[in-house]
Input
Amino acid sequence: VLGNALKFTTAGEIEVEVSYGQMSFDSMKKPLIAIDVCDSGSGMSMEQASKIFEPFSQAENSTSRKYGGTGLGLSISKRFALALGGDVALLSSKEDEGSVFRITIDPHIIERDEPSMTTPLDLFLIPDPIAERRLPSLEGIKVLLIEDGLDNQALIKKLLENVGAEVVLASDGELGIDHALSETFQVVLMDIGLPGMNGYDAMSELRRLGYEVPIIALTAHALDADRRRAEALGFDDFISKPIDWLKLAEAIVHCRDASIH
Output
């Protein structure tokens, strides 16, 4: 939620207010932590606001081209909050004036006798130490990660470094191409939903320039048509989000080994 406020506020200010107290939730009152995020960004119309929590939804088609992303951020944030006994809600929004979101969390959820059937770990495959021990070693593999999401950058970089990889970051397609052509990598991880030059276009440009290093597509769009398009453009593998960390590590090793032979 805060990431969106930063992304869509080019001037003005962003305020974050945290409070705790009895609040209405599911037709009852209970003690909740509330985090209000208020920005002076682009805001939304009522029609746009009605769709923002739908997966793969963005206020305008041009939003994805300009800012990147897949329209999953708020949907995922809402699922996280629900798993923590709260919610994410849009309190108000007006075009060209900004938006106010409220995140609520139940601080007592960990005291329940029976844990929720759905937890953030189940939903998003966040790596844990036991899972990491099952991953193949990536020692000696230098990876270029082209990904605009700061949280995704940090998570993927941390996991790959934990199993021995060296990771270089690029936040958009043009920077990714510059890094790819100026440094030596064994594997490139390319997010498809990049701002400006998207992953498909960046891939096409690299192959046009004769770049032969294996490139793995990372995308929340996991339909067969998306996979076929990626294969047709020359991607060496295709990993859908949420990421299966074992599949990602194995794909990196496979692509590195195939390029050697």
